[in-house]
Amino acid sequence: MQRRPGTFVLFTDFSTFGPYVGQMKAVLVAGADWPVVDLMHDAPAFDPRSSAYLLRAFSAGLPEGSVILGVIDPGVGSERRAVAVRADGWWLVGPDNGLLALLARQAEHFEVYHLPVPDDADATFHGRDVFAPAAVRIARGEPPGEPIAGDAGLIGLDWPDDESRAIYVDHYGNVMTGLRGSRVPQQAVLCANGHRIARGRTFSDVPTGHAFWYINSSGLVEVAVNQGSAAERVGLAPGMPVALEV
User: CA angle, 53 as apex, 51 and 59 as ends, to 5°?
Assistant: First the structure.
């Protein structure tokens, strides 16, 4: 492996409270002189499937050579595998629970490495003790682990391209879905929790207090209320289904 400049990109459900993000960053910056980007730290907690759709959307535009370190890991310390995936110009590091699969699948080519778990790794913090050290090895031009033939049976490779449900609520109360806007006709009506919601291009297209759906800056179908909370107005929470009528 050839060493080259790059960027560490963190995607976790740790939140920014507590020591966990800082402890992972300490391992990264001690091991390689690369910048660290905090892509997201309030990903859907304990939910690698919803997080996989967000990670795919939010990763658009990341520089080639990025090492994306994803930790949504409810199975930490169990028999679930720890993996690194080389996907075109990116590296993906994290648990084999579906979190990395959608990004891997969209690559023209990907290869999977099994990551070793050191004997002294804490059973509850593989982000610091397994995944961050693997990311450092990649930054140094070293193999992160043992290569595995084929797709290695990665969990999540058979998940659908789009997920017809709410997957994330931001602090404004806007509700992101797992649907890519490029696949949805502009005239479609979104049905959610008994509401029928028309499309708007942006917030000012609808009166204050009205709900609409739009294609957000990451390309996902999102439900919003102009100067209000869609989560409250529509009663929409993560996991609830949405449907489209054309």
Answer: 95
Residues spanned by CATH 3.40.50.10790 within the chain? 8-148
What's the topology of domain 163-245? Elongation Factor Tu (Ef-tu); domain 3 (2.40.30)
Q: In the β-sheet with 175-180, what is the strand arrangement from edge to edge?
A: 163-169, 175-180, 220-225, 211-215
Which of 175, 153, 174 lies closest to 165 in space, CA to CA? 175
* 3-state DSSP helix/strand/coil % of the chain, to nearest 5: 20, 30, 50
Q: What is the pTM of this model?
A: 0.96
Give span(s): CATH 2.40.30.90, the chain.
163-245
Q: pLDDT tens per residue, the chain (246 residues)?
A: 555 679 999 999 999 999 999 999 999 999 999 999 999 999 999 999 999 999 999 999 999 999 999 999 999 999 999 999 999 999 999 999 999 999 999 999 999 999 999 999 999 999 999 999 999 999 999 999 999 987 779 999 999 999 999 999 999 999 999 999 999 999 999 999 999 999 999 999 999 999 999 999 999 999 999 999 999 999 999 999 999 998
The dotted CATH code for 8-148 is: 3.40.50.10790
